[in-house]
Every structure is written in C-alpha cells, then in structure tokens.
C-alpha cells in the first residue's frame, strides 16, 4: 500500500482548507463579497476579506482596521485570535493552512529554472518580515493618513494575497470597481508579479522574507502545541532532513526555529524515523 | 515554604502553549465584551478598496 506521508497529506489539507475558507461561489460570479456572520471571526492564515469567496476575516486586515481607528485602543479580539492560533499551531498555519502559501508552493512546482531554497543574503533578508510587521502593519497603520483617514498600510502597499485573491477576481467580475483602477493597482500588481516569478525559482519568498503573519507565528513556533519532534539519540546525522528542508534547517532547529513552517518534509525523508509530528507536552527549552 | 515549592514546581510543569492559548482566550473574552467582534465584522463586510488597490 502507498504510504500517506505528511508532505502528501499537506497538499490535500491546503487545497481543502483554501476551498472551504474561500467557498462563497456567488461572490466570484457576481463580483460581490460574503456578508454573513462568519466574518465576525478571523481565519488563521493570510486570507483577504475582500476576496469574493472569503467566508471569514483576515487577522492582519482586522488588526490594521483596529489600528486605523481614530481612538486607538488595544485590539484584544484580533490579538486573541493570533495568540490562540499561534499557541496551538505556530507556523504550522503557514505550512498547512495559508492559501497564499499554497499558491507559492504550486508555483515552485513548475519545472522551469534551477530551484533555490533561499535568496542571497538570506541571513539578513529573513528579518524583512519583522520590518514589515513593525513598519507597515503596526506603525504604518497607526500613523499613515490619506486625507483625514488612516490607511491599512500593509494591505494598501504590499499584500500580494489581497491582489491575487481579492483584486483580480473582484475586478474581473465587477465593472463598477474595475473602472476605478489607477496607479496603486498597477503598483500592487507589480509586487504580485515579482513574488509570483520569484516563487517559481525560490521557495516561498513572500513567507520567508516579507509575511508579517509569519513573523507573528514564528514567535510561537518554539512552544506551540503542534511540533515536529527530533529524537536526538536515534539520529545518525545523515543530514537528509536538512537537504529536504525547504528552508534549509538543521535537525536541531526544525520546528523550534521561527523559519520552520512545519511542512513535514524532514519527517518524510528521515531514514531512522527520528523526526515525527507530535504534541508539545512541555516547553521545548 | 513547602506550599510554595509545591506550587512553583507545578507551575513550571505547565506547557507554555497552554499559557499562550489561555491569554488568547482571555483576550477574546475582553474583545467580545468591548464589542470588537462587531468592529471586525463591520470592516470585513465592506469591500476594502486599499486591499484591491483602488483605495
């Protein structure tokens, strides 16, 4: 019987999750968005709520909306969602549940170019996501104005998920909106095209270098419930896991590093099965 | 003294993820009490013009 490995299960999970959380077919057909009560809650992954199919809210969009309020207050509800998802899953969300992560995974499977795991200067560039989190999501959304209205800076200037899952289907089905396209749209389309092209060559460039949600969940990675356990005693140091790891992590850093998306490819290739999914009984420190 | 040692060793055994999830649930309750879920909903049911690049 064919073995059902974590990596194979992951693609299935990603597709089902993306269909379920973006399954409002009426929206795609009529250029409208879902307005039902599920939008009171946030999904764990980056999922633009202006996607015609989206049935729930994007945590980053909701966080910026809260920071855009005239009377700034602590966004407890959004932080609550982030703490719960982060503590349970960490960056497992990125690897298994994010629709934009799925898109980048599929693009990376296109058999052109010689594939690379990371960009040059990776050790510096990986901090880009923290700069985006602090600069655009938090500070930018709290202080940047258009006229007298604050703007969700990350959504407005960078988010490629909003362009791909929100703008493109919505504008293609809604003539009233498409007639208002201007320079900002072409800027965002340019950002999307660069990330799409990079994704064919480099593994998940947006997740590795720019995603502020990945920066948040990365902080929880070390102590989240879902972990990939490494049995050091059984390890024969063959480095097969590091070779298979899409972000090039050595076995001691798998699962606990903020860069690990818990995809499970390491567990698939380990000849001694000393890497496997498990739950965190105690803080791994 | 014995009482504190017993409790501190118990607290040290609590996995950090349960503390994080507990804080999250607490935040959700506070957010609910402050009506922040309605704020999330109100924003999410309107087309975000910035998100789609025309705002």
Poorly predicted runs of 5 or more residues of chain A: none
Computed CA radius of gyration of chain B, to the nearest angstrom: 20 Å
What is the helix tally of chain B? Answer: 3
Provide the spatial order of strands within the biggest beta sheet of chain A: 1-2
Cα(first) to Cα(last) distance of chain A is 38 Å
Q: What profile does the largest beta sheet of chain B have?
A: none
- State the largest interface: A-B, 64 and 36 residues
Task: Write down the overall mean pLDDT of chain A.
Answer: 92
The total beta strand count of chain A reads: 4
Q: Nearest-angstrom radius of gyration of chain A?
A: 19 Å
The helix-strand sequence of chain B is: HHH
- Shape label of chain B: elongated
The mean pLDDT of chain B is 90
* Principal-axis shape of chain A: globular
Q: What is the succession of H and E elements of chain A? A: HHHHHHHHEEHHHHHHEHHE
Oligomer: heterodimer
As a percent range, the share of helical residues of chain A equals 40-55%
Residue share in β-strands of chain A: under 5%
Domain count of chain A: 2
Put simply, the count of helices of chain A is 16
């Amino acid at each position: 019987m064919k073995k059902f490995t974590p990596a194979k299960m992951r693609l299935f999970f990603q597709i089902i999750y993306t269909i379920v959380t973006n399954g409002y077919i009426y929206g795609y057909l009529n250029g409208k968005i879902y307005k039902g009560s599920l939008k009171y809650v946030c999904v764990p992954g980056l999922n633009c709520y202006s996607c015609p199919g989206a049935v729930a809210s994007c945590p980053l969009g909701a966080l910026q909306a809260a920071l855009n309020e005239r009377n700034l207050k602590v966004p407890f509800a959004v932080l609550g969602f982030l703490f719960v998802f982060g503590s349970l899953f960490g960056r497992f969300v990125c690897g298994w549940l994010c629709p934009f992560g799925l898109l980048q995974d599929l693009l990376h499977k296109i058999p052109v170019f010689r594939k690379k795991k990371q960009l040059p200067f990776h050790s510096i560039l990986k901090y880009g996501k923290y700069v985006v989190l602090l600069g655009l999501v938090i500070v930018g959304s709290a202080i940047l104005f258009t006229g007298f209205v604050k703007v969700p800076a990350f959504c407005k200037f960078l988010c490629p998920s909003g362009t791909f899952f929100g703008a493109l289907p919505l504008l293609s089905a809604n003539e009233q909106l498409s007639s208002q396209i201007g320079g900002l749209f072409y800027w965002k389309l340019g950002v999307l095209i660069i990330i799409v092209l990079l994704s064919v060559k480099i593994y998940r460039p947006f997740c590795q270098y720019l995603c502020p949600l990945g920066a948040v969940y990365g902080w929880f990675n070390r102590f989240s419930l879902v972990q990939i356990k490494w049995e050091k005693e059984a390890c024969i140091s063959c480095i097969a896991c590091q070779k298979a790891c899409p972000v090039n992590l050595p076995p001691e850093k798998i699962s606990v590093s903020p860069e690990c998306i818990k995809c499970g490819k390491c567990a698939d290739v380990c000849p001694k099965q000393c890497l496997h999914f498990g739950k965190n009984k105690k803080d791994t420190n | 003294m014995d009482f504190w040692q017993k409790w501190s060793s118990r607290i040290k055994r609590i996995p950090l993820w349960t503390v994080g999830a507990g804080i999250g649930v607490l935040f959700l309750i506070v957010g609910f009490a402050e009506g922040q879920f309605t704020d999330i909903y109100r924003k999410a049911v309107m087309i975000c013009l910035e998100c789609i690049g025309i705002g």
